[in-house]
Amino acid sequence: MTVSQDQVALARILEQRGLADMAAIDAAAAGGERIAVALVRSGRVEAQAMAEAVAEATGAALVEPAAPVETANIARSFLADRLAAPLGLEEGRLIVAMADPADSETLAGIVFASGLPASPRAASIGAIERALGVARPVTAGPGSAYRSTVVAAGGAARTITVVATDRAAAQRSLHREGLTPLSVGHGEPSLAQRLINAWAPGGDAEAALIEQVGLARSRTRDLNAALAIVKAGPLPAAQKSAIDRIVARGPADPIGAIAAEPGLPATTRDLLTGAADQGAMLIAIAETMRAREALHVAARSPALPAACWFAGAVAILLFAGAYLIASIAALAGAIVAMRVDRGLRGAIAAADAAALAATTGDSARRDVAARLERAARTMALRMGAQAQAGAIALFTIATIIGIRG
Asked: Where do the TM regions start and end (predicted)?
């Protein structure tokens, strides 16, 4: 049996009920998804029958979530990807319908993003997707087309289509061709893709970043628990402020500092301090995500285009002979560009915090954190250099105008 420990009870019940034999269960587990999801997606087990088996295996009550549901400030994309739907509060706890209530990673992400303790309930995949307002194909018969992002040894990543009887067979065929699959599925992103998409959406950018960061050669599965918490959504403001204050102080023991922080709910402290390496990785990833957010904002900022317009206005005004106005316009453009540069330097500082925070955990986790941090720094420096170049050019124009005026 190749299923993880927290899925053993479900595997036994599925076998006892005659819903799936152990060969089918092992094949489903080999694809990397929870078996409760993989067996339904492949059409091997009917969705309601699976929900009933899951309820028995986990001891969670079987529910039918109403549509639409309130997401409790948790990213809807995360809920749809992890097949979970918040149902509301009950005695101070967030009740969550889940395709697999034993999925502790998803539950941890929900607790972290909502700031509330959570209690899982069992529900069918179809019921959860209807409640969230999403729909996906449920069956994948023999000869289905599986889309996979792959990378060859020393090569760039690319997306190809493989025709196979199931996900495991698709993975085996890729390995036989000497390709490393980063994802295999009907458009469902892998962990590596989620990390990459957070930085640089788009196929070409993904391929470039895979190569730069080296995720294809890292043990990305080690980050599942930490990433689930980060991807669930932004931290509630009070928690984010508390963690920001701790990281800004640069304590030698960030995990201990968080444990002693009175501004955090007990559930958050429990998640962050449950294991030192996971806690450190959570801080590292959260800080790296902050750097990414700063870059994302800077990339979409109208500041640099505005600086270009100012430069154009300078040229027009110069020819018109309005030297004083041109000089003011050029200076204003330079200030705009320098403000962008300052924001990018803040992104570099956040990347520094990510590197500082990744002080514990095994070498593979530290390696992934370090690669992400270096990618953030590289992108920030490149954009910062562009902003500086624009500022210098505008200052030069302003100086020339001033002299001629």
From this structure: 309-336, 380-403
89 membership: H or E segment, kind and range: strand 84-90
Give the whole-angstrom CA distance, residue 148 versus residue 93. Answer: 39
For the whole prediction, is pTM greater than 0.90? no
The secondary element (H helix, E strand) that includes residue 376 is helix 363-404
Domains in the chain with CATH codes: 5-132 (3.30.300.160), 144-217 (no CATH), 275-404 (no CATH)
CA dihedral 155, 157, 163, 165 (to 10 degrees): 100
DSSP for 174-226? HHHTTEEEEEEESS---HHHHHHHHH--SHHHHHHHHHHH-GGGS-GGGGHHH
Per residue in 131-162, pLDDT (tens digit) is 887 755 433 344 455 555 554 444 444 555 55
For the range 255-259, what are the long-range contacts, defined as Cβ-Cβ under 8 Å and sequence gap of 24 or more? 255/279, 255/280, 255/283, 255/360, 258/283
* Residue in this structure with the two tokens 């915090």, named with its chain if needed: 353
Antiparallel, parallel or unpaired: β 144-152 and 118-122: unpaired
